[in-house]
Design goal:
Elements lengths: L1 H34 L2 H14 L1
Length: 52
């Protein structure tokens, strides 16, 4: 039972870490995106739709 609790805590920390990594991976592009002008944003959206 003790091992199970430890595993649960470890997995929680691990997922948190992964979320942080994902967040920072997307943070810079997002900030760039926010700085763009409206026309650029529309263009950016069109381009990103192609990839999805």
């Amino acid at each position: 039972m003790k091992d199970l609790i430890w595993f649960w805590k470890a997995s929680k920390v691990y997922t948190k870490y992964n979320y942080m990594k994902l967040f920072f991976k997307w943070w810079r592009p997002l900030r760039k995106f926010m700085k763009l002008s409206k026309d650029d944003r529309i263009q950016f959206k069109k381009n990103s739709m192609k990839f999805l």
